[in-house]
Amino acid sequence: MSMSNPLLWPKARVIWGYGIALLSVYTALLISRWPPVRLETAPVSLFLGAIMLSAWFGGLGPGLLATALSSLAFDYYFLPPIYSLVAKPGEIPRLVIFTVSALFVGSLSAAQRSATESLRRARDDLRGTVKELQKTNEALHAESLERKHAEEALRHAQGDLARVSRITTLGELTASLAHEVNQPIAAAVTNANTCLRWLTRERPDLEEAREAASRIVKDATRAAEIVSRTRLLFKKGTAQRELVGLNEMVREMIVLLRGEATRHKILIATDLATGLPQVMGDRVLLQQVLMNLMLNGIEAMKDVDGKRELLIKSQQTENEEVILSVSDTGVGLPAQQADQIFKAFFTTKPQGTGMGLSISRSIVEAHGGRLWADGNSPRGASFCFTLSTKNEGHG
Ligand code: ADP
Known about the structure:
Blueprint: H1 9-32, H2 43-58, H3 60-78, H4 92-199, H5 206-234, E1 242-244, H6 246-263, E2 267-272, E3 279-281, H7 283-301, E4 309-316, E5 321-327, H8 356-366, E6 371-375, E7 381-388
Helix pairs in contact: 1-2, 1-3, 2-3, 2-4, 3-4, 4-5, 6-7, 7-8
Bound molecules: adenosine-5'-diphosphate.
């Protein structure tokens, strides 16, 4: 029990040292006086052995005790007159020589022991220092890893920022393109009216009518050019194709939109399938789709009472497809107009552009997938899109 208290260990060691001294001298005496062995003639080496042992295990104190006891025993049992502590004057040199050699052997053994001890302690110290160095090294390593992660997160955040501005730009761009296409169409209508007017005159002016008609051709060509330029935006060839992890994309987007969700007391939950295969596609465009759906969901919940939860789910189908769904508990799809929401410029929001869903659908379809909407039970809306996991887009 005392061994459990480290403070008592040194004391126990000292007691053990003296115990060994007593025991070893006593054993040496027994052996040398044991009749069958008859070692009375050579007790010196036995006593010296006992002294060495005591000094080795117990140090100087037990060594000295063993020396004193051995000298007394040697004098009492082996120097004439036997069984007397007073030796004959002629035997005194033997006693002195024994005691001196015993002292010498004992101190030598104790010194060697203490040298071994200090070596062991030095080795332990060294081991401790090495361990500490290892720990410091590990801590440094962890720190550098942490810094790496932080740098990565920063890079991600910067990428996200760039993405947000790209999304805004894309939305604005599309709106301005729509405006641009409107102009030549309006001009074409005006020119067509002029042309009609020249033709329906009493004496039709064919020259003026031809000029108006050629202006119509020019206007229509301009409109067609604008439309084909817009198409180019989503054309497969211009998109960057790479392997995209959808779950990772969801997590990144949550980081980006968490602040916005918290501001409206909305909880973002996920149910992401493990081992989801990656899809081949344009990461930035797919991020825009997800972001559009999430922002729409958040906007739909802004003013509703009760539970506000945005649930993002990923799953794999049997047809080598993944489905990503964004469900909210918001106002729900606009009644009687649910089939309109994917049309460009359809919006029920005062500040809306009505372009988000139409762009998102174009992007998903350009990736060979589908995007659709459904009601969410008991309240809200659910938007799902599929993407193929067959990596046909490698080439
Ligand atoms: P915008 O958000 O600018 O209106 P969108 O194309 O993203 O453009 O959305 C079109 C319309 O679809 C919205 O105005 C809204 O009526 C409807 N809508 C989109 N998402 C949701 C949703 N999560 N819940 C209810 N209605 C939605």
